[in-house]
Amino acid sequence: MFVALALGGFAAGIENANEMSYRQRAVADELLGRVNATGRSVNRSAGALGAVLGGVLAAALGETFALWVVAAIFGVAALIAVFSPLRSARA
């Protein structure tokens, strides 16, 4: 778990810099604050909802199964990122 969390934190640091740089180039200056606020609100809400659902899943079906479900979700998210057209987008 420590290695997974360390790698996740490292990846988040890289992702955040790329995401913010792209957003600043792609969004008009007068809308940037709204876009950033909306993105952060959705991100934080999804994180909180995921924590609650993960706890419910772990309580109902067991921790091991819940961890496998989370691993599968993150695997799908990684595949979406790898095959996303945003990887080659230029503003």
Concise summary:
The chain has 3 helices and no strands. Helix 2 packs antiparallel against helix 3.
List keywords for this structure.
single chain, 91 residues, mainly alpha
Record the SSE blueprint.
Blueprint: H1 2-26, H2 29-61, H3 63-82
Helix pairs in contact: 2-3
Total domains: 1
Average of per-residue pLDDT values? 89
Fraction of residues in β-strands: under 5%
Poorly predicted runs of 5 or more residues: none
- Total E-strand runs: 0
Tell the overall outline: globular
Cα distance, first to last residue?
37 Å
Secondary-structure element order, as H and E?
A: HHH
Instruction: Return the structural class.
Output: mainly alpha
